[in-house]
């Protein structure tokens, strides 16, 4: 074989292999992303840092934030092993019953026992919403008001009839209906933790670092829903003050709680209620004895660039298939480009 013939043969082989690499790259990486974007109509994921002036700086050691096990003293375990992922709860004094929403969609009704024997309470599968019930509260007629992450704001009567009170406002659907409480005048205050991401993708809201949450009210008389506050960082639990002057809501990502005035000279204004919490506040309840109880979801630090990268790894097993494609692309694309640019040994 002559030198010119060998050169033509090598050139042809290299061209064919380069074409195959481009085809393989498109089929394996780009095509699934295009299909996912078409099928799921993905919104752009554009992570940013949280505003510096809003981030709490908790002290996890000193003073009142020191770790302790005081809650365990004199506490009783209710429904142990019989409730799957209970979220919020509400106690009905008239019937001695606790209602709580579980991750399997069931509203559990727990009838408390008069004795002190743990496990003697009766746990009932009361109503399945077909979604994910989160916040719960009782209205003045004894009906259960539920913030269902998937269904919206629900009302469940004593005879188990489920009614969707509202699931959108201003033409924008709720994606993650969350905390709820009822004022004495019947107004329901609740949160939509994110109008962009649903519950199964909620970690993307945390990672993106943008304020997609809303704090709202629903008037059962006029059946009107009103947005009271926009641009909140994952608003969560809600509690109306005993004097009906303000409503406290938790802003989980910022590790703080704020109060929104519903009466008086400050009506419509927002103030800090508490900040520098040692974790992400979830639900909040008033105990009728002058204290608010706040459940903390975790003690992880606020999001920044380094924790964003860490969370991408920690949440990998929870990522739905269509988002997994995009994340895999973000990890594999630099490697693919690197390998593509490496010199090859041709025969």
TrEMBL record:
**Residue ranges of coiled coil:** none
TM stretches of this protein = 24-42, 323-340
Report the residue ranges that make up the Strictosidine synthase conserved region domain in this protein: 178-264
Q: Record's superkingdom? A: Eukaryota
GO CC terms in record: endomembrane system; vacuole
Per the annotation, which location comes first and is thus the protein's main one?
other
GO molecular-function term, one example from the UniProt record: hydrolase activity
Pfam families reported in the protein's UniProt record? SSL_N, Str_synth
Name the UniProt key words of this record, in alphabetical order.
Glycoprotein, Membrane, Phosphoprotein, Transmembrane, Transmembrane helix, Vacuole
Identify the InterPro entries for this entry.
6-blade_b-propeller_TolB-like, Strictosidine_synth_cons-reg
Q: Which family does it belong to?
A: Belongs to the strictosidine synthase family.
Protein's UniProt name: Protein STRICTOSIDINE SYNTHASE-LIKE 7 isoform X2
